[in-house]
Amino acid sequence: MQGRLTSVFVGRDAEVEHVVSLGRQAAAGAGTVLLVEGEPGIGKTALLDTAAAGYPADGLTVRRGAAKELQRQVPFAAVCSWLDSDRGSDPVRALLRSGERAGDGAATHEFAITEAILDLVDTWCAAGPVALIIDDVHWADRQSLTVLNRLCGVVGDLPLLLVLAARPLPRDTGFVALTAELVERGAQMIRLGALPEPAAAELVRHMVGAAPGPGLMRQVVGAGGNPLYITELVASLLRDQAITVIADTADPTETADGPSASLAGAIAQRLEFLSRSARQVLPMAAALGPTVYVAELAAVLDSPILEIWKVVTEATDGGLLTHADSELIFRHDLIRQVLADQLPDSLRAGLLRRAGQILLATDAPIERIAYYLLAGETELDKPALDWLVPVADKLIVRVPEIAVQLLQRAAGTTDLGMRPVLLRLHAQALLWNGRAAEAEALVRTALLNRPGDDIELRWLLMQACHARGDLREVVAVAEKALATANLTDADAGRFHGMSGLNNFLLGRFDAAEAAGARALAIGDATENPLVTGYGLLTVGAVRYTHGDLDEALELSNRIIAVFDSGFGSDQFDPYILSAHCLIELDRLADAEAVLHKAIGHSRRINGVYLGANVVAKARLYLLNGRWDDAIVECASGQSAPDAFGYTPFLHGLSALIGIHRGTFLPGPDDIPAPNNQLGSSGYGQFLPWIKALTLETHGDPRGALDLLVDAHQRLSDGLTSPTLYYIFPDIARLAADVGDEQAARSVVAASAELARRQPTASRTGTALLCRGVAERDPAILRTAAADFRKAGRPFYEAQAHENAALLFAADGSASDARGALDAAVELYTGLGASWDTARAVARMRPYGIRRGVRGPRNRPKSGRAALTDTERKVAALVAEGFANSDIAAQMFLSRRTIQSHVSNILAKLGIGSRREIAAALSGK
Asked: In this predicted model, what pLDDT tens digit does every residue of 671-688 receive, in sequence order?
């Protein structure tokens, strides 16, 4: 009465039907998420196996995966179990295997991989409905949990069923956060409890071939309705030949021993029937992990491979091991854990250490070798250190936390010759993990203990200080090194470059330009592209801030030329300066194209300026009147790594548009105060601008003007100066309304100087608007409107028409006033700026001026007419069957931006899935 364990699945008919029905809904385009919870052995995997077996017939492509306890520190290990051998996953695999060296930080690298995985899922879904199933999510790594969280947010717009199976305990914070997100989104949940007694009896009947009698059922009830426990219990009785069948009823024999008190006991009884060799080998195999690698196991145990193969075959026949795809694994992790627990801790640690040492000379994945070496809990020997140093950069990227711990242990080596390089690698690992303060402390201690000067440690110290936002200390470290260290030209150049860039970010423009010019000279002389790049970026940024846009653009083009010659670095973005210059030169289409390159470049190299580029794109859309697109960019940009604190600006820009549209009505005290990060200091006028407009909506134009004037005075010489003129038209209007001539004169002078330095259409238009309002000359305002139209800035054009209308009305020119008012309202309406429309009309009311021929009404809130131009383009491509990632590539937008547009389209059309978009557009 022996044989393999049964695979029968009973007592879960309702649950199976529920999972099957969710699959059919996904096949129809209504995606959803399902969380299946239950204790170990309760039948979660069997439930998913049974339900998913019919998915292909329903039109779903099924991708199965599982998280593993020993891979909890391997980024993306859980979700990448979906990939298998799919050639379409090559971009993801390339990113996972990228990182010949560790760059600025893990956050941007992880963001790039997350986006690539989401792109891949989107591509799968474009090809047809998909069921993504992942088991043992409680063991998932942090990065996989992030991907799953992101998927939960978009699953409703895709033909996708996302099924997650997990134990209720233990739970780490990441899994708790994911579960909370699922609850908030109303995800489907199944909690598997104990099998009902009739179902347990059916399971036993299937195993023994007869109905269980009362004696056998008393023992089965002791297993608590857990199918795995029941299976092991009955299997042990069968092996002992302790079940007798009389008249189709099975009961224990009178001489049978009592049942095992635990699952561990039941598995131990199963081992008694294995050979002595198998009983010795299997616990050691279990200690090495859930997957059994026969050749490696033979090497670690110093046993003939044929002998190990015999053990593996015996364990497979006995139901302890099973094949999963191309791997040999323990049938259940509980079985593996019970076996591994048979080894004393000291023996297990020694086994893992030996595994790491043996695998050093093999082609085994470096992640697994590192895990074994770390688990060995002893000082690393010379061969291990020799292996670690050349693979450390890859290790830092692939398994960041393991790398930190292993390098920390390695850095304590008694080998004084290797210690400096190991200290540097440990600091790099800490920086990559976002632990800049620890990296700084480590490097400072190392510098104190070094008899000589270590230039690379000083460079790491600057990077750590920069990552913490301590820009002044970066400059101090650079200046000390330049003054005291014996530097090569290349080293001096990069220290000058780093000093210059951080001086610029501190607003120390003279010092920044001097350091940048020095770096540029050294870079050109030594043909060092990194140093040249630092110099060009620093000097160009200073020129841009001073308003010398043509010169700044020329320098930015040189940066791109250096980059295109084959040099690349994640320490600065070769496109960002060019994009800013093109925006301010009113070359908005060119700026958008460059920003598309910049964002793509940042994603590819995991650069730290991704957030800055997204902000620049949102700002561009604010200026050119694509406000809906600006809001979408603000929403999508908030998930990007934010090394420089741009998230408050994204919130602020959305709020600014909301005020103009009358959809964001906070109290003045609800506006957050700016912080001291680059994201706030670079756009320092926006938060006071929002607060000022909020005061105006609450009937306090004087308070609004005071805020804007204060912002102008405080920010005119800092990083905000290139875009500070955005608030000038509001200062001019409010100054005229409250009769503040000093404020009016100040903004006229500032705008005139701005236009003198760089007479772009937008800056000239701003100067003319301020002067026309101050001098009460509507003709000047008409010219300003024409300049804004040439610059492609419809909101500012509308402001010029609004102010001209008021002055025409005051002069008694009713026809001209009405024409200017109609022009202003038409532009405001196109933007959805209902608050500005209401203000313009109200300002004309005392003069008896009403609008002339009514222009188009505000865009409706629902239906096809509610779609913006961008949304119509996206909807057409979705209707043609394109994936979001393909649409993003065609439209020079990010996949996440397209996803936001798709969500808006579904909401406006009142439909539930992207499959319905084609019918909705055709009116069917």
From this structure: 666 666 666 677 888 889
∠ Cα 816 818 821 (to 5°)? 110
pLDDT tens digits, one per residue of 865-905: 778 878 888 888 887 778 777 777 667 666 667 777 887 88
**Tally of CB atoms within 10 A around 285:** 30
Which of helix, strand or coil describes residue 160? strand
Highest mean pLDDT among 65-74, 347-356, 370-379, 586-595 belongs to 586-595
Sort strands 32-37 and 188-191 into parallel, antiparallel or unpaired: parallel
583, 619 Cβ separation under 8 angstroms: yes
Q: How many CB atoms lie within 10 A of CB 564?
A: 10
Round to whole Å and give the CA distance between 99 and 158.
32
Tell me the CB-side half-sphere exposure of residue 192, using CA atoms within 13 A.
31
CA–CA distances in Å: residue 192 to residues 15, 40, 41, 165, 300: 8, 10, 10, 10, 40
Q: Is the dihedral of CA 193, 194, 198, 204 positive or negative?
A: positive
What is the band of 620 on the pLDDT scale with cuts at 50, 70, 90? very high
Neighbours of 584 (CB within 10 A): 22
Q: Is the model's pTM score more than 0.90?
A: no
| pLDDT attached to residue 496 | 95
Sign of the torsion formed by the C-alpha atoms of 339, 345, 346 and 348: positive
Contacts of range 450-453, beta carbons closer than 8 Å, 24 or more positions apart? 450/420, 453/481, 453/484, 453/485, 453/486
Report the C-alpha gap between 678 and 862 in whole angstroms: 39
Q: Output the pLDDT for position 264.
A: 66
Taking the C-alpha atoms of residue 314 and residue 326, their distance in angstroms, rounded to an integer, is 18
Strands 327-330 and 188-191: unpaired
Q: Residue 1: CA atoms inside 13 Å, Cβ hemisphere, count? A: 16
Cα 158 to chain centroid, rounded: 19
Distance of CA 888 to the CA centre of its chain: 17
At residue 190, the 3 state secondary structure works out as strand
Question: Sheet harboring 188-191: ordered strands across?
Answer: 61-66, 130-135, 160-166, 32-37, 188-191
